[in-house]
C-alpha cells in the first residue's frame, strides 16, 4: 500500500518533469517557427498578387490547374484537368512560412522535428500521470489541459504525416500549446488524485476522450478559419487594386489561398461534427446513469448543446445562399468560442453538476455526496 | 461586403447556370428565393409565410436563435435544477426578479418563447423534409441527367483519342461505372426536354446515400425531440432517505419529495418495493487525498409487483437499479445515530435511528432528535423534547468542530437538549433537521450554562434534576435514493444513434456524376471525353475520374494526336495547353 503510494508519487513527479521538459522543447520549436517566418520574409514572392493581377489582365481566360499527373510509370494515363467553379478566385496556395527560402525551410523542418520531440515528451508526461493515478488522465482541468494540448499537437502531426499542407499552422499551434500548458502548470495544477465515485464509469473514458479530440480538431479548424478571414481580405484588397500593408504582404502571401483555407477548415469542422454529436450523446448516457436523467440543462450540458447548434449553424450556412464564405466563417469562430467557453468559462464562472472538473473540490456536492 | 465575396455567392450555383440539367438536383436542398412580397390575398400570404418558414435562410436564423436562447438558462438559476438558488436570487435582486419572472427566465427551457423557437424550427424542419423526401424519391426513380454539350466546362475533365470504336468504349464505360457502383445509363435513353439526344455518352451518378443520410439525420432530430418531450411530460422523480434496515414501496405517499411531468398520473408508478440492508463507503486512508471517497454502495433487497420474489441488488453511484421503467439511484449518504430517550421514571419514550445531514466531505453531520409525545418531565407534566445533535464520525482530540475522516473510526455525538414546545402544531412545515427554539428552554448544566455533552457509542447522559436520560446506542448509515421514471428514453437513444449515422453519411459521402462521351471524329479516330461533377469542389472527384479514366484507357489505348507528332504522353503543361484552346475555340 505505502509502496504503491510511493511509486505513484514518483510517477507523478516524473510526469511533472516531463511536462516541464515538453514546455521547454515547445519553446524551442516556437522559436524555430519564428525563425522560419523571419527567414521566409526575405523572399518576396508575391504569388497571390501576381496571380490576381495576371488574372485581371487576361480576364475571361479559364484558369486551369493540373491536379493529377500521369499514373504509374509503366502505363501513362490521360490527365485530368481541374477547373475552378466560375465566380471563385483562382489563386495558388502560398509556399508556406519559409516563403521558398532555403534557410527558412531548414528552420521549419527543425521546428517540426522539435514539435515531434516535444509531443513525445508531453505524451510521456500524460501517460505517466495516467499511470500514477491508474485511470484516464482527465479527472481535473490540469489533466484535461495537458491531454488537450498533446492531442492538438497529435492532430497537427497526423495531418502533416498525411501530407496535408498544414505546416503553416505550426507557429499558431505552439503558441497556444505553450499558453495552454503554462496555464495548466500554474493556475490549474492539481496534485495527482484518484476519482470520486461519480467519475467511475467507462462512459467517462468515452465521453471525455472524444470531447478532447473534438476540441483539438475544432481548434485546428478555428485557426484556419481565422487565417482564412485574413487571407480573404488580403486577396480582396489585391483584387480590388488596393495595396495591403507590408506585414500582410509578407505573412499572408505565404499562407495557402483563402479558398484552400476555407475548404480545409470546413473539412476539419465537418469531420469532427459527428464525433461531437456522439460526445454529447455519450455524456447524456453517462448522466442518465449518474444523475437519473439524461438531459437536465445543466450549464455544461447547455453549453455543449449551444456549441453543437452553433456548428450546425455553420454547416447549414455553407449550404445556404448568401451565407457562404465570410459569414459562415464568423459562425465557425463563434462556435469555437462556445466550445472554449464551455471548457473554461463554465468550469470557472458557472457552478453546476460538472463542477468536479474544476480546480477546487466541490466534487462531493456535485453528485449529492 | 466586398465585390468578390458577392461574386462567390450567386443565388444559383454557378454550375447550374453553366450546365443546365446536368448540374441540377445534386441535392434536394430547397431553392433559395429572395423574400419577394406575395400577391395579395390570404392564401397568398399563407403560402408566402410557409415558403419563408421552410427556407434554408429561416432555418438557419431559427437555429441561431435556438443557440442564443439557450444561453440565459445557463447563467440564471433555474427552478428546474435548483430551487434554492432561485429563491436566493429573488432575495438579492428585488428589481430584476419580477422582470425575469415575466420573461420566464427562471425556467428558460420551458418558457413560451424558447418553446416557440424550437417548435417553429421543427415545423420548418418537417416542412423541409417532406418535399425533400419526395424530390429525392423522384430522383431515385428518374435517371442521372444526360451529358452536357460541353464537357470541358465541368470541374474535372479528361480526354484522349483512340482507335477503339465509340460503341465499344461506351459499353466498356457502362460496365466499368456499374462495377464501381455508379448508377449508370447509356445516354441514348435520356430524353431530357422531350427531344431524344444522340446516344453518344454514358451518364452515371453515385453517392445517393448522402441524401439518405441527410434526410435520416433530420428525421432523427424530430424523433429525438418527440422522445424528449414525451419523457418530460410523463416523467417522475422522487427521493427517499432510508436508514439501514428500513424499506420503501413505490407509492406517492412513501416519498420524501416528488416531482412529475404535466401528464404523469400516479397509476404510472411501477409497483415495486425495496429495503436497504447495508451501505458501505470506502475512503482513501492515506496520502494527499486522504478521505476522498473511493466506493459507495448500497445493498438492497427488492421485489417487483405486489407479490414479487425477493431479490438482492447492489446499487452504486453510476449503477442504478432498473426495475421496469424505473431506475433507483444512490444519490447521498450519511450517518444515523441510534438514540434512546427515557423519561425521569426510566420509561423509554423514544428509540430510533436519527438521520443527520452531512455538512462537509468528512461527513461532519448535524440534525435534531425530536420527541413529540410520551415524555413527562420530573413533575409529571407532558412536554416535548428537542435535542440538537452534532456528529463527528472520526473525532480527533483538539478538533471539536469537524470530523477528520469520513468513515466511522472514532465517532462522537454531541448533544444539546431542550424541552418545551416543538411548535409542530403551529401549522408551519418544519425541517426535521432544524430546531425551532422559540418555545423551547435549554437544559442547564451545574454551572447554569446550556448543557452540552459528548457521547461515545453506548454512553448515556443524564438530564439534570431527574428529567430523564439520553443514550447513544450505536450508529447506522443512511442512503438517499432517487427514483426516476422517464419513458421514451429508448426512443431518444435510437434517434440519436440514427442522427449520428445519418450525419456521418451526409458529411462524408460525396454525391457526384460522371459522364463519358465517345464520338468518332472526322479523321476516323474516336475522341473519348470524361468529366466529373461533385456537389462541392472536392479533390476526390478528379482523383476518382482519373482512376476511372486510367482503367478505361487500358481498354481503349490512346492514338497519336494528329497535331502532335511526338506521342500522347502529355506532360502537365501540354494538358493545360490542350484544354485551353478547347475552351477558347468555343468562344
Ligand atoms: C433542427 C434543427 C436543424 C439542425 C440541427 C440541422 C443540422 C444540419 C446539419 C448539421 C447539416 C449538415 C449536413 C450536411 O452538410 O450535409 C444539415 C444539412 C441540411 N439541412 Fe439541416 N438542420 C436543421 C434544420 C433544418 C431545416 C429546418 C431545414 C430546411 C429548411 C434543413 C435543411 C437542410 C438541408 C437542405 C441540408 C443539406 C445541405 C446540403 O445538402 O449540404 N435543416 N442540417
From TrEMBL, chain A:
Localisation: Membrane
Membrane topology type: Multi-pass membrane protein
Transmembrane segments: 18-39, 110-132, 144-162, 169-190, 202-230, 268-287, 302-321, 328-346
Main subcellular location of this protein, as a coarse class: membrane
InterPro entries recorded: Cyt_c_assembly, Cyt_c_biogenesis_CcsA, Cyt_c_biogenesis_CcsA/CcmC
GO cellular component: plasma membrane
Cytochrome c assembly protein domain residues: 138-351
Keywords from the named record: Cytochrome c-type biogenesis, Membrane, Transmembrane, Transmembrane helix
GO molecular function: heme binding
Domain of life assignment: Bacteria
Protein name: C-type cytochrome biogenesis protein CcsB
Organism: Streptomyces cupreus
Automatic annotation (TrEMBL), chain B:
Keywords: Cytochrome c-type biogenesis, Membrane, Transmembrane, Transmembrane helix
Main location per the UniProt record: membrane
Domain ResB-like stretches: 56-545
Topology relative to the membrane: Multi-pass membrane protein
Record keyword Transmembrane present: yes
Acidic residues compositional bias, start-end: 561-571
One Pfam short name: ResB
Superkingdom to which the source organism belongs: Bacteria
Residue span of region Disordered: 1-24, 550-587
Transmembrane segments: 58-76, 112-134, 215-234, 490-509
GO BP term (any one): cytochrome complex assembly
Descriptive protein name: Cytochrome c biogenesis protein ResB
Amino acid at each position: 500500500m505505502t509502496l504503491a503510494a510511493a511509486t505513484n508519487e514518483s510517477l507523478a513527479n516524473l510526469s511533472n518533469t516531463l511536462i516541464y521538459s515538453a514546455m521547454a522543447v515547445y519553446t524551442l520549436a516556437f522559436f524555430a517557427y519564428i525563425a522560419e517566418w523571419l527567414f521566409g520574409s526575405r523572399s518576396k514572392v508575391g504569388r497571390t498578387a501576381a496571380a490576381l493581377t495576371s488574372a485581371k489582365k487576361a480576364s475571361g481566360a479559364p484558369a486551369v490547374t493540373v491536379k493529377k499527373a500521369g499514373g504509374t510509370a509503366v502505363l501513362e494515363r490521360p490527365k485530368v484537368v481541374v477547373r475552378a467553379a466560375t465566380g471563385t478566385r483562382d489563386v495558388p496556395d502560398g509556399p508556406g512560412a519559409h516563403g521558398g527560402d532555403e534557410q527558412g525551410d531548414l528552420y521549419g523542418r527543425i521546428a517540426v522535428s522539435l514539435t515531434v520531440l516535444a509531443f513525445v515528451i508531453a505524451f510521456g508526461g500524460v501517460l505517466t500521470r495516467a499511470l500514477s493515478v491508474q485511470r484516464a488522465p482527465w479527472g481535473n482541468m490540469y489533466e484535461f489541459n495537458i491531454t488537450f494540448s498533446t492531442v492538438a499537437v497529435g492532430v497537427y502531426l497526423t495531418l502533416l504525416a498525411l501530407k496535408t499542407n498544414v505546416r503553416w499552422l505550426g507557429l499558431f499551434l505552439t503558441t497556444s500549446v505553450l499558453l495552454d500548458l503554462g496555464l495548466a502548470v500554474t493556475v490549474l495544477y492539481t496534485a495527482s488524485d484518484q476519482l470520486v465515485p461519480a467519475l467511475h464509469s467507462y462512459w467517462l473514458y468515452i465521453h471525455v476522450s472524444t470531447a478532447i479530440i473534438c476540441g483539438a480538431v475544432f481548434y485546428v479548424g478555428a485557426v484556419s478559419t481565422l487565417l482564412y478571414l485574413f487571407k480573404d481580405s488580403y486577396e480582396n484588397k489585391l483584387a480590388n487594386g488596393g495595396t495591403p500593408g507590408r506585414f500582410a504582404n509578407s505573412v499572408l502571401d505565404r499562407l495557402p489561398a483563402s479558398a484552400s483555407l476555407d475548404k480545409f477548415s470546413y473539412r476539419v469542422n465537418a469531420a469532427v461534427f459527428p464525433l461531437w454529436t456522439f460526445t454529447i450523446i455519450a455524456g447524456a448516457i453517462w448522466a442518465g446513469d449518474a444523475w437519473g436523467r439524461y438531459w437536465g440543462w445543466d450549464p455544461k450540458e447547455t453549453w455543449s448543446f449551444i456549441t453543437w447548434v452553433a456548428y450546425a449553424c455553420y454547416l447549414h450556412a455553407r449550404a445556404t445562399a448568401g451565407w457562404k464564405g465570410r459569414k459562415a466563417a464568423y459562425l465557425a469562430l463563434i462556435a469555437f468560442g462556445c466550445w472554449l467557453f464551455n471548457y473554461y468559462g463554465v468550469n470557472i464562472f458557472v457552478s453546476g453538476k460538472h463542477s468536479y472538473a474544476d480546480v477546487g473540490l466541490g466534487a462531493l456536492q456535485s453528485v449529492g455526496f | 461586403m466586398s465585390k468578390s465575396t458577392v461574386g462567390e455567392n450567386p443565388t444559383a450555383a454557378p454550375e447550374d447556370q453553366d450546365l443546365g440539367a446536368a448540374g441540377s438536383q445534386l441535392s434536394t436542398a430547397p431553392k433559395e428565393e429572395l423574400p419577394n412580397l406575395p400577391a395579395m390575398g390570404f392564401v397568398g400570404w399563407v403560402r408566402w409565410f410557409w415558403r419563408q418558414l421552410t427556407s434554408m435562410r429561416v432555418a438557419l436564423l431559427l437555429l441561431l436563435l435556438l443557440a442564443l436562447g439557450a444561453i440565459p438558462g445557463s447563467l440564471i438559476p433555474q427552478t428546474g435544477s435548483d430551487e434554492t438558488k432561485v429563491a436566493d436570487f429573488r432575495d438579492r435582486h428585488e428589481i430584476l426578479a419580477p422582470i425575469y419572472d415575466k420573461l420566464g427566465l427562471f425556467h428558460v427551457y420551458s418558457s413560451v418563447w424558447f418553446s416557440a423557437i424550437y417548435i417553429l424550427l421543427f415545423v420548418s424542419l418537417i416542412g423541409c423534409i417532406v418535399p425533400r423526401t419526395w424530390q429525392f424519391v423522384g430522383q431515385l426513380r428518374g435517371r442521372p441527367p444526360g451529358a452536357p454539350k460541353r464537357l470541358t466546362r465541368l470541374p474535372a475533365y479528361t480526354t484522349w483519342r483512340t482507335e477503339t470504336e465509340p460503341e465499344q468504349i461506351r459499353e466498356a464505360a457502362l460496365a466499368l461505372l456499374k462495377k464501381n457502383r455508379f448508377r449508370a445509363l447509356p445516354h441514348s435513353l435520356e430524353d431530357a426536354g422531350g427531344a431524344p439526344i444522340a446516344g453518344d455518352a454514358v451518364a452515371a451518378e453515385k453517392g445517393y446515400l448522402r441524401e439518405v443520410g441527410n434526410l435520416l439525420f433530420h428525421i432523427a432530430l424530430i424523433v429525438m425531440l418527440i422522445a424528449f418531450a414525451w419523457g418530460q411530460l410523463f416523467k417522475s422523480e422522487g427521493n427517499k432517505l432510508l436508514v439501514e434496515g428500513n424499506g420503501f414501496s413505490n407509492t406517492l405517499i412513501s416519498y420524501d419529495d416528488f416531482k412529475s411531468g404535466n401528464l404523469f398520473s400516479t397509476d404510472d408508478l411501477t409497483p415495486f418495493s425495496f429495503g436497504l440492508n447495508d451501505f458501505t463507503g470506502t475512503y482513501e486512508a492515506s496520502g494527499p487525498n486522504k478521505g476522498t471517497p473511493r466506493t459507495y454502495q448500497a445493498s438492497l433487497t427488492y421485489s417487483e409487483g405486489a407479490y414479487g420474489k425477493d431479490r438482492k441488488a447492489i446499487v452504486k453511484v453510476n449503477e442504478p437499479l432498473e426495475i421496469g421503467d424505473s431506475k433507483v439511484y444512490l444519490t447521498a449518504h450519511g450517518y444515523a445515530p441510534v438514540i434512546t430517550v427515557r423519561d425521569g421514571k426510566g420509561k423509554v419514550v423514544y428509540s430510533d435511528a436519527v438521520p443527520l445531514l452531512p455538512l462537509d466531505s468528512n461527513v461532519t453531520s448535524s440534525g435534531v432528535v425530536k420527541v413529540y409525545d410520551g415524555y413527562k418531565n420530573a413533575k409529571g407534566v407532558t412536554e416535548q423534547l428537542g435535542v440538537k445533535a452534532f456528529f463527528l464520525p472520526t473525532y480527533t482530540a483538539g478538533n471539536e468542530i469537524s470530523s477528520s475522516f469520513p468513515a466511522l473510526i472514532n465517532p462522537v455525538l454531541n448533544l444539546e437538549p431542550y424541552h418545551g414546545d416543538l411548535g409542530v402544531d403551529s401549522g408551519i412545515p418544519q425541517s426535521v433537521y432544524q430546531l425551532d427554539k422559540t418555545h423551547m428552554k435549554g437544559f442547564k448544566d451545574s454551572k447554569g450554562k446550556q448543557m452540552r455533552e459528548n457521547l461515545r457509542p453506548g454512553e448515556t447522559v443524564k438530564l439534570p434534576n431527574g428529567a430523564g436520560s439520553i443514550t447513544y446506542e450505536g450508529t447506522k448509515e443512511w442512503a438517499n435514493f432517487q427514483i426516476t421514471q422517464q419513458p421514451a428514453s429508448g426512443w431518444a437513444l435510437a434517434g440519436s444513434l440514427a442522427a449520428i449515422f445519418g450525419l456521418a453519411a451526409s458529411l462524408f459521402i460525396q454525391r457526384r456524376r460522371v459522364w463519358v462521351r465517345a464520338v468518332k471524329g472526322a479523321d476516323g479516330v474516336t475522341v473519348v471525353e470524361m468529366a466529373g461533377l461533385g456537389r462541392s469542389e472536392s479533390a476526390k472527384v478528379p482523383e476518382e475520374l482519373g482512376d476511372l479514366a486510367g482503367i478505361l484507357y487500358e481498354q481503349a489505348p490512346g492514338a497519336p494526336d494528329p497535331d502532335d507528332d511526338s506521342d500522347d504522353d502529355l506532360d502537365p503543361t501540354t494538358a493545360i495547353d490542350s484544354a485551353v484552346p478547347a475552351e477558347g475555340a468555343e468562344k
